[in-house]
Amino acid sequence: MNSKSSSLRRFLSSPGPCYTIDTRFICKVPGDTISKILVIEDNHQNAVLIRRVLESRHHQVIHVSEGEAGLKTAIEEIPDIILIDLGLPDIDGQTLIAFMKRAPELKDVPLVAVTAWPEDTARQMAEAYGCDGYISKPINTRTFPDQIAAFIRKKSRLNSATRKKINSPRKNSSAVLCLMSCTPIHTAN
Q: Which residues contact 154 (CB under 8 A, 6 or more apart)?
């Protein structure tokens, strides 16, 4: 275990209000959690604004400016949420999201489009691309952290419900067994 994760673990489990992690002084607010957020954004000013807003709420922000690097980073880091600018210079948003959707490591990670497209277009494109939602630019710095938290909570609830469903006894298990036992098995003569 490295010292970074050890410091973070101590921070999250300790009752005190303020701690130092990686040279940053952070005050822990009751109910606050630290989420790892990957931001794939090629506009430097937008990236800086997003970082400042989210870090002020104690989130860990990882920023990359190109889609290919974003995919690699997402698979290596497994963030809690990925914010994707759909107009990246090296790869279009639809292709990047399709690659991310196929990565088993990212199946539980919400993908959120962050775009300057008009509201109706943004909603349609995010839905068509398979995103979990979208946030319009320019971001509203007051509501942005709550939007991010809502996406993370929603995906977490969906994943919990899916796990419960998978782990619960199946009502149709006899039908599955019947299908399996009624299927002819071909043997070599």
A: 110, 132
